[in-house]
Design a protein that fits this description.
With 366 residues, the protein is of the alpha/beta class. It is 47% helix and 14% strand. The protein is built from 16 helices and 13 strands. The strands form 2 sheets. A 7-stranded parallel β-sheet has the order 3-2-1-4-5-6-7, with helices on both faces. Helix 1 (10-26) crosses helix 7 and helix 1 crosses helix 16 (353-365). The relative contact order is 0.13. The protein binds uridine-diphosphate-N-acetylglucosamine. Uridine-diphosphate-N-acetylglucosamine binds at residues 9-11, 41-44, 47-48, 68, 99-101, 133-134, 208, 240-242. Residues 9-11, 41-44, 47-48, 68, 99-101, 133-134, 208, 240-242 line the site of uridine-diphosphate-N-acetylglucosamine.
């Protein structure tokens, strides 16, 4: 039995890494042969290759060079190239992860080509915000998937509500957390990170959602709030290419330079982990970081109006603070007054999700 494991953009690489490691560990005894497909949605060294190196992922068997473009262009390029891969490789099933354009494009392609089975890791999450490209990717991918691996109970509830059969859904925990726990063990062997205040008196920003950075007024308001926060708590911002472009385009550079926000290039997984794990506060619009901060009980402000990962707010260390300048500042003044949320780690976020996933893949392919 053969599977293709698909990844395309930065947040996908840490999700496939533990699955690939588990498949490798089991070797032929799993009865599954596998190949890796990298769609090339992210292609820069800092956005892609460094993750393969650090996460010990083998070279992809197929690299599709899809690159950037509009959503339609990007998805279309992935679909054309991935169809050829499926015809050549003849998988029994494909495994897609997360919610990026590559996830949707490969799921659609496989399903329409001889009804190849699709397993979706991180299924069922819903923000109910159809303005987010990721929400559309999630809904379409889940609608087509034969096996739905969910990270939290809300994922199962959403899928049942949408009419999916219970038998297709498996609550397996969180592969991001598998990678997190595995990489944490490496940190003591590395030289100390330079230039970080040792007492953790700093915050970390990641911000790149189109809804936050592609609109001048919204991005300006968020940066104004973060600039004020940075006068009390220095903020480090490893910046995604999309957000860097917008700062230049909207001429917001001077505002950032005059604040206590320090821009940095995108970091590798381990260097980013070293940065945020000891931070006093993380401010983000990323999906993954909401979960990672919950797994390590680091206080997190999510700069969005909604989250598809409600367990990080209900159980974990995450607070939804919205995208308005006033909302962010109000949340920060509560934080300064000592209302600091550290939360608990959700069930099954134990570093063993990939084992459960590979067990289920083996059963499904028997
Ligand atoms: C994508 C995902 C998003 C994820 C994010 C993580 C979708 C719809 N969005 O958004 O869910 O959180 O990745 O990074 O799939 N670029 C580079 N180098 C690269 C890749 C991109 O410079 O290696 C630049 C390009 O100019 C491109 C822009 O970044 O236009 C955006 O890239 P794209 O893949 O379209 O979406 P992201 O914003 O990265």
């Amino acid at each position: 039995m053969k599977i293709l494991v698909v990844a395309g953009a930065r947040p996908n690489f840490m999700k496939i890494a533990p699955i690939v490691r588990e498949l490798r560990r089991r070797g032929e005894s799993s009865g599954i042969s596998w190949e890796i497909v990298h769609t090339g949605q992210h292609y820069d060294y800092a956005m892609s290759k460094v993750f393969f190196d650090e996460l010990d992922l083998p070279e992809p068997d197929y690299f599709l060079e899809a690159g950037s473009g509009s959503h339609a262009e990007q998805a279309a390029r992935v679909m054309v190239a991935f169809e050829k891969v499926c015809l050549e490789s003849r998988p029994d099933m494909i495994v897609v992860v997360g919610d990026v354009n590559s996830t949707l494009a490969c799921a659609v392609t496989a399903k329409k080509l001889n009804n190849i089975r699709v397993a979706h890791v991180e299924a069922g999450l819903r923000s109910r915000d159809m303005g987010m490209p990721e929400e559309i990717n999630r809904i379409v991918t889940d609608a087509l998937s034969d096996l739905l691996f969910v990270t939290e109970p809300s994922g199962r509830d959403n899928l049942l509500h949408e009419g999916k059969e219970e038998g297709k859904i498996r609550l397996v925990g969180n592969v991001m957390v598998d990678t997190l726990f595995q990489q944490l063990k490496r940190i003591p062997q590395l030289p100390a990170a330079e230039g970080l205040p040792e007492d953790g008196s700093y915050g970390v920003i990641t911000l790149h959602r189109p809804s936050n950075v592609d609109d001048l007024e919204t991005f300006r308001g968020i940066l104004e709030a973060l600039g004020k926060v940075s006068l009390e708590l220095p903020l480090l911002y490893p910046i995604h290419p999309r957000a860097r472009k917008r700062i230049e385009e909207f001429q917001l550079g001077a505002m950032v330079r005059e604040s206590g926000i320090r821009l940095m290039p995108p970091l590798s997984y381990i260097n980013f982990l070293r940065l945020w794990k000891d931070a006093a506060l993380v401010l983000t619009d990323s999906g993954g970081l909401q979960e990672e901060t919950t797994a390590l009980s680091v206080p997190c402000f999510t700069v969005r109006e909604n989250t598809e990962r409600p367990i990080t707010v209900d159980v974990g260390s995450n607070t939804l603070v919205g995208t308005s300048c006033e909302g962010i500042l109000e949340a920060f003044s509560r934080f300064q007054a000592g209302q600091i949320k550290t939360g608990q780690v959700p069930d099954l976020w134990d570093g063993c999700a990939a084992e459960r996933i590979v067990d289920a893949l083996g059963d499904a392919l028997k």
